[in-house]
Design goal:
This protein is α/β, with parallel strands linked by helices. The chain contains 13 helices and twelve strands.
Length: about 400
Amino acid sequence: MTASDVFSKKGTKVSAYEPWISDDDKKLVLQSLNQTMLTLGPNLEKFEKMFAKYTKTKDAVAVSNCTAALHLSLMALGIKKGDEVIIPDLTFIADANAVLAVGARPVMADIDDNFAISARSVKKKLSKNTKAIIPVHIYGESCNMDEILNIAKSNDIKVVEDCAHAVGTFYKRKHVGGFGDTGCFSFYPTKNLTTAEGGMVTTNFPEIAEKVRQLRSHGMTRSLSDRYKRGYPWVFDVKEPGYNYRLDEIRCALGISQLSRISKINELRKNAAKYYNKMLKNVRGIISPKIVNDGSHSYHLYTIRVTKSYGKTRNQLFEFLRDNGIRTTVYWLPIHKFTAYKKFIKNPDDVKNSARIYEEILALPLYPTISRKQQDVVIDHIKQFQKK
């Protein structure tokens, strides 16, 4: 069976997302194909330096995806079998998978009404085996990092920030990814900055950066360039087995180009979000995300809540929009609802806010190139369906 591009399906009026690949993006990608080094080369080094400068962290290590970033972060921090790592219940499964990959146990905490991990719930989940917290800056809005860091400091536990939604997200005028021990970014096609597939680990600790660099390339103690600059290139050590989690030169070239215009990308997203808010503010039963005017939100997603007073359920609205060519989705099914992770939740009431909010949330189409005409189609259908 031949795979099809479901996002370009005939009859689709408004896509759930559209990546913005510019002519400059394509030019840099094509240039990279003329290099001799197609991995671990100059584009990787440049992209890492640019990203560290952008986030104002001391170091950035590019990897194959955000899951790899999470996995390597936990490894570098010594999280192991028998340890517990607290994660929000409303997040992507990558957080749980990364914890399991190092042999630890994921512990799900509830969320607050802003979708972020609840500090109160985190405190309830602490145990003698808790060794790390993964706060998720979901949808482009930062967690309350003061609360998270206070809990971590008081209990001597590590903090791995999940910044998959957060390129351009700030907390108290400081870019996220530099508060915890590491920050983990995603460059998946739907993200504000894309390399098709890709990720980044940011950190202010040189020893963590060095360990992540080694682990992303099988645990080799010498880099590719170093091995060919001096001595015998086949002579290196492996102190701890690692993985092939490298980000190649082609994708790094795309990342360099995208990062150079990330302010413009995020500004267009913000403008689209503001327009949604303006046009949906008087729709009964629709709770729009708050618009943050201090530049701290990256507007990765525009997630509404469809409450009872709207008169229809979230699923009914999704189906109506889908049947009329408008693509929407939900981020995400709570972790405790998956078969593989149910055993890690003892009492469903511990995550009742997550379960309740999940039934209401719906992400509307949002991307830099979305037009007012496309947004009006979405808005008009939401209003129209309420009257049916």
